[in-house]
Structure formats: C-alpha cells, structure tokens
Amino acid sequence: FQILSRAIHIDGRSIMAATTDSQQDSHLVGATADNHFATFVEMGQDQDINLNNLIGICVDGASNMIECRHSKTSKVVEKFKSVIVVHCCSH
C-alpha cells in the first residue's frame, strides 16, 4: 500500500507532502490500521511535524481508515484527543 500525507501549517502558507510505499518499508505488511497509524507517526517525525499540534485529519472511507473501533483515525484520536476527523467528500 502507499500513503500520501499532507500537512498545512497553521499560517496557511506552508504545505508539506510525504509519501511512503510499504514495499520499500519491510516492517510494514499490509494496509492495517496499525500500519497506517505507524506510518502516519513516522512520516510526521521524518518531516519534523509536531503531531501534538494536529487539529484535523481527512481520510477515505475504508474501514481500516475511519471505522470507530480499530482504525487509523481511532488511533489518532486516542493519541491526540482534540483531533477532528473528516470523511473525504471525494471518496
């Protein structure tokens, strides 16, 4: 699987994009909620993005991304309490 993440800084002028491919990252096997979350956190660290300042996340409607009990977004909300989750209207 491949993940694309974009971060827009609060000033609205700075946009960062990061992408990862699980075939290049041997520790990631499959598009599970755990792997999506781990990749999201790793990309934040790699790009020097302080995820404690995260205010929102927009994802597609796949169950591993947005399901209420075990998904990337449930893990993000568990770790970063004030995050707003939005289902992408294009998906």
Characterise this structure.
The protein has 91 residues and is of the alpha+beta class. It has one domain. Helices cover 29% and strands 24% of the residues. The radius of gyration is 13 Å and the shape is globular. The relative contact order is 0.17. This is DUF4371 domain-containing protein.
Based on the model shown, name its key terms:
91 residues, two-stranded antiparallel sheet, DUF4371 domain-containing protein
Layout: helices, strands, pairs:
Blueprint: E1 2-8, E2 15-21, H1 33-46, E3 56-59, H2 63-66, H3 72-79, E4 84-87
Helix pairs in contact: 1-3
Protein name: DUF4371 domain-containing protein
Organism: Streblomastix strix
Overall pLDDT: 75
Helix amount, in percent? 25-40%
Low-pLDDT segments, ≥5 res: none
Our estimate of the beta-strand percent is: 15-25%
Strand order of the largest sheet: 1-2
Radius of gyration computed on alpha carbons: 13 Å
Shape: globular
| Helix run count | 3
End-to-end distance, in Å? Answer: 17 Å
The main sheet comes to: 2 strands, antiparallel
Helix-strand string: EEHEHHE
Question: Would you summarize the structure shown here?
Answer:
It comes from Streblomastix strix. By secondary structure, the protein is of the alpha+beta class.
